[in-house]
Amino acid sequence: MKKYKAVVNGLGNIGREAIAAIEVSGDFECVGVIRRKQSIGKNKNDLRGIDEYTDISDIINKHGKVDVCLQGTPSRNAKEDNIFYLEKGINTVDSFDVHGEIASMVESLDPIAKKNNVVAITSSGWDPGTDSILRTLFEAMIPMGTTFTNFGRGLSMGHSVVARSIEGVSDAFSITIPLGGGKHSRLVYVVLESNANFDDVCKRIKKDDYFAHDSLDVREVKNSTELSRLVDSSHGVLMERTGASGLTSNQILKFDMRINNPALTSQVMLSSARAALRMQAGCYTLIDIPPVYFLEGERLDNIARLV
Amino acid sequence: MKKYKAVVNGLGNIGREAIAAIEVSGDFECVGVIRRKQSIGKNKNDLRGIDEYTDISDIINKHGKVDVCLQGTPSRNAKEDNIFYLEKGINTVDSFDVHGEIASMVESLDPIAKKNNVVAITSSGWDPGTDSILRTLFEAMIPMGTTFTNFGRGLSMGHSVVARSIEGVSDAFSITIPLGGGKHSRLVYVVLESNANFDDVCKRIKKDDYFAHDSLDVREVKNSTELSRLVDSSHGVLMERTGASGLTSNQILKFDMRINNPALTSQVMLSSARAALRMQAGCYTLIDIPPVYFLEGERLDNIARLV
């Protein structure tokens, strides 16, 4: 069977796991990893034998048409990176996670994707991503009621980046702890700079908009080595919706997930890459995609097996 | 706002709850209920003020074009009933639940729907239905692994019908009890005919293919009045999938639902009716439908709110 050709842009947590997901899939092959010039040659094991490049043109020259690019670069680069590949006629999948900007990302990329006759799938991870599908499905089942999405316990990359940027902090990680009702506490482990005062640092963290709205627990750790022993890639969600279907109350739905975060994100991105090859040109989120498009195999076989 | 015009075919559990779901929706109105001639005038309260008819032509004459028909008739009538309405240019939604025949239902109805430029959505309930979407989504997240769908505790209509048809049984209900690992026990309450032997009836039930593969517990009840006190519309599912995303094992997903069965089924059918008005002509199951199509409102507003 001819396999679809994917490239992975970046070799961070997402890129590394995307290579693994492609390796065990039956219908995709990874024809190259794009990296910055200064990263070439580093973390060789993460490449799992895939060639690294700085320029997509070199991959195309060697392997021919590339079907899809999985974006493993930071969310702040997603728009620019997507446009770069879309304009080269390559479908894109990203895990852009700035919830407030997703609708405008769709509006920006949709005409570019259509003009180049390709598909961009944005915010394809687990939240935004598969959780978004569940929130939508839960409302279709129970139109009146309340949904709580409870995250954690797990590392928040976004909050960790902000904590590290606080004056007096030399290194930090932020863990999200669910308090129920969709509320969360932030547990921040910090390594202080030599002249920093712990109480001042706490106040500065609490003042940042990322932390101002939740309960906060800051703990000091001696050094980065000790800090690195406290964190891993575990994460989870408990999504709960209770309400009424028609005139009938006490309808109760729960989704509980415990996962390795980058492994799930990258797997969902690969499933979305498969969907991208089945959608009409345009930009989509996961709630725009017929679920059967995510899976290997023929539609009617999957209907017979799963419906 | 102009509302979509729905008719409900049949006034059983599904029809009654479909009327309620339409009543509380913002974008549909029920313009009539189709009933058999001998049922007209019965169960007036279930109609909630909606007019009853024996002939769809009378509804069309009074209200103009009908957008969709929600099928509240038994699964064995689904194909014939769907074809009848599709050929009149009316979209259809059913909750056909014979798992082994869903793919062939799609193949049968698809050309008829396309020829008449309408949409048929089949097997739109919770299983098949929303559970099918979850099974599909869970495989997109965890391609390698096992899914168990554990049903119950709740009344199985299909098993109850079969139990009632057994020689020596005057009335019966069958409750499905989950044993874990996707296995179930069947608890059957029976009212015996006056000359029937309990042990013989148990053997006959156990021999039927519906009961032969599960653990069976038959209990005798004195009469239909006593029997009717044992059953209601509660049901539930625990769906569990554990496996690997890419090369990473121990990814754990659970979906737990406790619901009123006909209320949820009818609500999902109404959400599917909304989707039917947004799909291209053809026949679809729920895994063929972009989830955002199930909801009231504009796509980008729902993306901003739910993704």
Q: Give the radius of gyration of chain A.
A: 21 Å
The DSSP helix count of chain A reads 11
- Count of separate structural domains of chain A: 2
| Average pLDDT over all residues of chain A | 97
- The oligomeric state of the chains shown is homodimer
The tally of beta strands of chain A, per DSSP, is 14
Overall geometric form of chain A = globular
Strands, helices and their partners?
Two copies of one chain form a homodimer.
Chain A: E1 4-9, H1 13-24, E2 28-34, E3 52-53, H2 56-63, E4 68-71, H3 78-86, E5 91-93, H4 102-115, E6 119-121, H5 130-141, E7 144-151, E8 154-155, H6 157-164, E9 169-180, E10 183-192, H7 198-207, H8 209-212, E11 215-220, H9 224-228, E12 234-245, E13 248-260, H10 261-276, E14 282-284, H11 299-306
Parallel strand pairs in A: 1-2, 1-4, 2-3, 4-5, 5-6, 6-14, 10-11
Antiparallel strand pairs in A: 7-12, 8-9, 9-10, 12-13
Helix pairs in contact in A: 1-10, 3-4
Characterization of the model:
2 copies of one chain form a homodimer. Chain A has 307 residues and is of the alpha/beta class. Chain A has 2 domains: 4-128 and 261-306, Rossmann fold, CATH 3.40.50.720; 149-235, Dihydrodipicolinate Reductase, domain 2 (2-Layer Sandwich), CATH 3.30.360. The first copy, chain A, contains 11 helices and 14 strands. The first copy, chain A, has helices spanning 13-24, 56-63, 78-86, 102-115, 130-141, 157-164, 198-207, 209-212, 224-228, 261-276, 299-306; strands at 4-9, 28-34, 52-53, 68-71, 91-93, 119-121, 144-151, 154-155, 169-180, 183-192, 215-220, 234-245, 248-260, 282-284. The two termini of chain A are 26 Å apart. The model of chain A has no long low-confidence stretch (mean pLDDT 97). At the A-B interface, helix 1, helix 4, helix 5, strand 13 and helix 10 of A face helix 1, helix 5, helix 6, strand 13 and helix 11 of B.
